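Work Package 3 (structural annotation) set out to generate three-dimensional models for the target panel prioritized at the project kickoff. During this period the team completed the workflow that converts sequence records into discrete structure tokens, so that structures can be stored uniformly alongside our sequence database. As a representative example, we reproduce one entry of 493 residues exactly as it appears in the project archive.
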Amino acid sequence: LFMLLCSVLFSDQAWKQFYQRIAVLKRLTQYSAPTSEFCSTLYSTITFIVCWLSTGCSCCLFCRCCCHRCWLLSDAGNICPGMNDVIEAMAKRLVDYGVPEDQVLGIRYGTRGFTAKDAKPVVLTRPKIDGIHLTGGTILGTSYDHHRVHRHASGYISASDGHSSNGYTTTSSYEESTAHNGGNSGAAADDQQSSDELEAILHKLEFWRINHFFVIGGQGGNQLAAQLAEGCKQRKVPCCIVGVPKSVDNDVMLVDKTFGFDTVVQEVVQRPLLAAKTEAASARKGVGLVKVFGRRSGWIALQASLASGVVDVCLIPEEPFEMQGPAGVLEYIKALIEKKGHAVLCVAEGAGQDLLYPEDEPIPVDDAGNPLLRDIGAALKKGIKAVIPDADVKYIDPTYMVQAVPSNSQDHIYCRILGFHAVDAAFAGYTGVMVGQVNGHFVLLPSAVVTQSARRVDPSGKSWNRLRAAIGQPRFQNSKTVDMPVSAASQAY
């Protein structure tokens, strides 16, 4: 009641001056004697006041949590280890803040849950979320209902020059179809439909009086969160929208790592790569070929190859290579087999796509802006059999097997921290942001900025050259400037 009375009596300028003085007093009491009971109590009180003031003096934010409604959205796309961990951590944290359990709802099947009649929200009560971190996948479900508004707003595809952020020259199958069916009129109609869908979601948030909206998603999901935050601001809807980046490829810009990445690397090392090593070493002229996640970034292939210690060749999207020629991949594999009797390859799914499409043919993309990849693993297997006809090639594709497992202990902790900080950020009044770890510190990042590009492996950086030094891998280029295998005393360390 005191805070409500003060918010009515004092002007905004007076509140700003009072907030600055309180912040200084908070800093002074922070360095007081730890045994001082007075300073300890004063510090706790000032901390509460500062948090309250930082929300714009919104009394209902802290004093009326019983009236809050919170929605959790699991974005469209693939599942990822740790999604249930984040959902459980958020739901429990919201209850700790005083939000009633029946007001914490989960949206089913991504953005489809806003409009589909067969996907009603799930009430995330304690019995409902208890123990879900021990299972893989997500209890909210996922869906591949992408919206073109995500792609255009994120800048992933540039309409002017047709170049994507991953270096591909792309063309959308959608754009090709509209070119045959009326051109700009079809595109305008689709843009209008996407705008209507965004307006429908904003209407839901306003109509149901949702105070906090949390998005667990990748580039498209967090771009949607940024658009919704801007829409709520324009409509003056009091809803805080916070995102948690989800990407099994670990390709979120600025973030040290995404949740589930450590689990996937561990699963790739323990099962597929060791199985490929066993199969290749046991066969005459055996070759173990493992294809892993990595549409635009080769972090999984890099880290798994370095951790396993059994990989002879690692191919990633960031490092171009040639398959034919004296310095190509196939000749190198042939030399490995002649030397040690077998070889093990770890390939990211987005590697070598320029070799699988003709030079004059652009790489098509789907409605979400992701390039439609061809199977580099099958192409490598065919090439190896052409060079070494009697080679015994074992091709292993564990992509959907490694992402369906529960998270490991490190990701359990990481997901819990991300969930807690997401709820804390929403109750502090932040919106249009995502939670992430940068240089070992958990910070809030603007969703609209982070989703503009992807985090990729630097071919001239320490991480990639450390792997090349460990396995002695050349660059697989037939040019005159081709380099020799990197030695242990080279630039990697």
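Residues 86 and 135 are 12 Å apart (CA to CA).
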